[in-house]
Hints:
Layout: H1 4-29, E1 32-33, E2 45-46, H2 51-60, H3 68-87, H4 92-109, H5 114-117, H6 119-139, H7 146-161, H8 168-182, H9 195-214, H10 229-244, H11 257-263, H12 268-289, H13 294-318
Antiparallel strand pairs: 1-2
Amino acid sequence: MAPLWLLAMLSLAGGFGLALGWRAWARHRGVVDAPDERRLHATPTPRGGGIGIAIVLLAAAPWLGQGSAWFAAGLVLCAGAGLVDDLRPLSPLAKGLLQAAGAACLAVAYPLWPDLWGAAVGHVLAGVVVLVMVNFWNFMDGSNGLAASQALFAALGLAALAPTLAPAAWLAVALAASCLGFLPLNFPRARLFLGDVGSHALGFAIAALLLMVAGTSGGSPWLLVLPVSAMVLDASLTLLSRARRRQVLWRAHREHLYQRAVAHGWSHAGICALYAAWTLAATGLALWLARQPAPWAMAGSGMALGFGIIAYSLLGRAWPRPAATGRTPHGSPTG
């Protein structure tokens, strides 16, 4: 088995080189995102650059040991659904079915706490986790560097919470390094977008890390949500707000907190830094709470999430949603 540093270097080079090659191909073939009323960019930009991350993760699958074949199959289905949609529009139903098939593959290998409520429920809950992470990362991929940097920090944070290095560390290193390789093309100025293939791959890998670490996390499994809380809070609270106002949930919009911040004058770099600061602080808190008695860990993580909900509400008032948001009759279901 190769050392972690070699896996990191190969993943870094792969994430950058494959993205760079895809950018040239996408520009030649016209696979670009054009500016419109729901997007935050002003010039046509090639999409689908996250295919490099997906390929790196697929290449790293053999290092995951037991469950690696299911991981690879699920990744191909989820990232493949995104790739098809990047190349030509895919209906929400078809995309959802492919995501569900990919989620089922990963759930077979890594059921969520089957000892607690039985294998069948554990498989179902694991599938839900995968679908949530895939779609949340998709929704949150709309600002330069945000989705890739959050996946990088979350991967390292989740690996740090694992009581043993393998196999979560191998996946975390491959994910973090490939994201680092992609970021120079996406941040601070976006010359290439992840596309759905990239956001799906990131969400799928984060879900895999969550399920792997949850299986070995001992008495403090609730701490695992803290490294992903920035993405989860924004995506889930925005989704609940839209549901409360009876809007079509899969229709593209500009209501996420990061989108509203950019609309009110924040730079993409500022938004990326703000979310990174939250994730690093939340991960540091999780690592500290992991050394405390279980009741303190539960209370501390609950208070952190409660503070995040309050912060979302206060910032939402400072950055009110656009008056016409969510009523555009066209667009893909991404955030």
